[in-house]
């Protein structure tokens, strides 16, 4: 396969069209197959990983968790090729048995995507627990990583996960009562996508913000994927995130520059975790966004994207 880094010679569409037999066009949703904006990469054991490509610039950025980030993060596209993908069991990728899930498997999925697309050197952007995934990948593959961005990353040790200084916007009683009524009337079975959308906004998206009024800015709709329905997602998160962890040794091995962007009011991943990553990584830099929670690209988009864009241009 022609390397995506050679975009001055070969367009991304041609690179994918002429590439690996493991790449399948996604056309059931009305996507023009010749453009290959959305595709699948198929692992050796037959699991399809959903891939969404934005832009055609010379710098390649890989962002796991397309279902939650792709549309909002396309703001980073000018001058870059952004490869969004869903790890197995998430978003548009194939569902898998939960015994296959874990942080280490998501690191392997990231390496599989890089290798299959012929990417020599990449920049990584990881949010939430995927902030740890991209850090672990950078520690294990230093020759493949130019820069790393962690946004609201899970802490490097489980001891910081329960930091009591954290504040949030928990789902209020009105939202809980509303969802309980939907359950009572059978909405999850009759309209699972609609119920998922209500659940996501009321129980996950708004509560994870320091500025919950910013929730309406999001363009994401993860509920179109069965993998992201509440019951499935909760089960996956329980299996992906270990009961205890300590990534301090891995953090110390990262040689790439790392930007950590963290909201000071993050109720999901405490700011103390971001500060810990910045202290552990050799070339770590922390940007704290005052008043923001776990979705700073919605709560303070100009500040978040300016910091990330400036950092990426330094490379």
Task: Please sum up the structure shown.
The protein has helices spanning 12-17, 66-73, 103-116, 129-140, 173-184, 187-190, 192-205, 230-240, 248-252, 271-280, 296-299, 301-313; strands spanning 23-25, 38-42, 48-54, 59-64, 80-85, 122-127, 145-151, 258-263, 284-289. By secondary structure, the chain is of the alpha/beta class.
Secondary structure: elements and pairs:
Blueprint: H1 12-17, E1 23-25, E2 38-42, E3 48-54, E4 59-64, H2 66-73, E5 80-85, H3 103-116, E6 122-127, H4 129-140, E7 145-151, H5 173-184, H6 187-190, H7 192-205, H8 230-240, H9 248-252, E8 258-263, H10 271-280, E9 284-289, H11 296-299, H12 301-313
Parallel strand pairs: 4-5, 4-6, 6-7, 7-8, 8-9
Antiparallel strand pairs: 1-2, 2-3, 3-5
Helix pairs in contact: 3-4, 5-7
Q: Which class of the largest domain in CATH terms?
A: Alpha Beta
Uncertain regions: pLDDT < 50 for 5+ in a row? 1-36, 163-168
Give the strand tally: 9
How many distinct domains? 2
CATH topology of the largest domain: Rossmann fold
Radius of gyration: 19 Å
> Considering DSSP H and I runs of 4 or more, what fraction of the residues is helical?
25-40%
What is the beta-strand fraction? 15-25%
| Fourth-tier CATH superfamily name of the largest domain | Alpha/Beta hydrolase fold, catalytic domain
Number of helices: 12
User: What is the CATH architecture assignment of the largest domain?
Assistant: 3-Layer(aba) Sandwich
Main sheet strand line-up: 1-2-3-5-4-6-7-8-9
Principal-axes geometry comes out as globular
The average pLDDT is: 87
**N to C succession of SSEs:** HEEEEHEHEHEHHHHHEHEHH
């Amino acid at each position: 396969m022609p390397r995506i880094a050679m975009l001055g010679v070969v367009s991304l569409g041609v690179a994918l069209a002429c590439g690996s037999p493991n790449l399948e066009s996604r056309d059931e949703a009305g996507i023009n197959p010749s453009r290959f904006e959305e595709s699948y990469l198929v692992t050796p054991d037959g699991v399809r990983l959903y891939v969404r490509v934005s832009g055609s610039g010379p710098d390649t950025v890989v962002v796991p968790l397309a279902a939650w980030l792709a549309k909002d993060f396309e703001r980073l596209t000018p001058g870059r090729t952004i490869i969004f993908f869903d790890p197995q069991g998430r978003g548009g990728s194939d569902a898998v048995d939960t015994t296959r899930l874990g942080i280490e498997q998501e690191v392997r999925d990231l390496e599989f995507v890089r290798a299959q697309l012929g990417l020599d050197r990449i920049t990584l952007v990881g949010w939430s627990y995927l902030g740890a995934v991209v850090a672990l990948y950078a520690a294990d593959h230093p020759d493949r990583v130019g820069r790393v961005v962690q946004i609201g990353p899970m802490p490097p040790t489980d001891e910081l996960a329960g930091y009591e200084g954290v504040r949030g916007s928990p789902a209020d009683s009105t939202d809980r009562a509303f969802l309980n009524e939907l359950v009572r009337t059978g909405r999850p079975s009759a309209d699972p996508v609609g119920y998922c959308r209500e659940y996501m906004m009321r129980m996950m998206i708004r509560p994870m913000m320091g500025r919950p009024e910013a929730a309406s800015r999001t363009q994401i709709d993860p509920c179109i994927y069965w993998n992201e329905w509440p019951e499935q997602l909760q089960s996956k998160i329980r299996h992906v995130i270990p009961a205890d962890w300590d990534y301090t040794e891995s953090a110390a091995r990262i040689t790439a520059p790392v930007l950590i962007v963290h909201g000071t009011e993050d109720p999901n991943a405490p700011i103390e975790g971001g500060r810990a990553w910045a202290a552990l990584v050799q070339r770590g830099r922390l940007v704290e966004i005052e008043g923001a929670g776990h979705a700073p690209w919605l709560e303070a988009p100009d500040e978040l994207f300016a910091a990330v864009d400036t950092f990426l241009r330094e490379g």
